[in-house]
Amino acid sequence: MYPSAPAPQNALHRVPAMGDLHLEYQPLIQLSNEATVGFEALSRWTDPVLGVVPPETFISNSEQTGEIVQLGHQVLALLKTEFPALLTKYPTIRISTNASTTELNAPDFAEHFSIWLKALPPNAAHHLTLEVTETSLMQLSEVAVAYLHTLREMGIQIAIDDFGTGQSSLARLHTLPFDVIKIDKSFIHQLHQPMAFEIVRWVITFGQRFGKKVVAEGVETQDQYDMLRTLGCDVAQGFLLGRPAPLAHWLALP
């Protein structure tokens, strides 16, 4: 239950209650055959006072107030309840969830995440992808990096999210555990620009050379889609291919 209605500005600086937080799923489409190969679980907050709160707002505020760990726990709790139905409907897909630097560096992250994994269906690790932003990956403690290595050994994929917007040191990048590179949407939206096109082409070539899957984020036009196919990109995600929608929407599809 909420306390008596807080002022809107104050309401933004608290973690959403479980009843107000929900998940929506955005599909990831394989470009070679247009098959749905995954879903990214995205947190959404509808507040009794504020209405729909943009995720960039409440996630950013949670990071600033230090409550991002609590928010992450709530997202995992929701995903745990919906994971079985989604996997039953789509038995070959991977489901992606995001983790922040603060979460991964928290002393109890490994324990909490391990307990969460045990509550999922058997072999669930082979259907999970943990997304970590490029900036976050560069700021992880040695303990957190070691745990990511452990998760990969269990079958969980690690994705570098928003690639190209952080402060990656190429000297360190090759030492970090990751399987997937997600090219930030800012590059995809500028594919018609020669420099952005060459950057995207380089990332795709890099991924192919070292066995990393490459995902293009924010695909919104047919031209972007066609160029990515020509470049040999593996997977795409964006409004052109499917908007985020609640679990019930995806379960109702034929």
Model description:
- This protein is α/β, with parallel strands linked by helices and 254 residues long.
- The chain has one domain: Alpha-Beta Barrel (TIM Barrel).
- Helix content is 44%, strand content 21%.
- The protein is built from 12 helices and 9 strands.
- An 8-stranded mixed β-barrel has the order 1-2-4-5-6-7-8-9.
- Strand 2 and strand 3 form a beta hairpin.
- The radius of gyration is 18 Å and the shape is globular.
- The N and C termini lie far apart (38 Å).
- Percent helix, as a range, is 40-55%
Main sheet record: 8 strands, mixed, barrel
> How far is it from the N-terminal to the C-terminal residue, by CA?
38 Å
**Which topology does CATH recognise?**
TIM Barrel
Assigned CATH class = Alpha Beta
Name the CATH superfamily classification. Answer: EAL domain
Structural class of the helices, strands and pairings? alpha/beta
Order of helices and strands: HEEEHHEHHEHHEHEHHEHEH
Individual helix count: 12
* Portion in beta strands: 15-25%
Ranges where pLDDT stays below 50 over 5 or more residues in a row are 1-8
Mean pLDDT: 90
CATH-scheme architecture = Alpha-Beta Barrel
**Globular, elongated, flat, extended or rod-shaped: what is the shape?**
globular
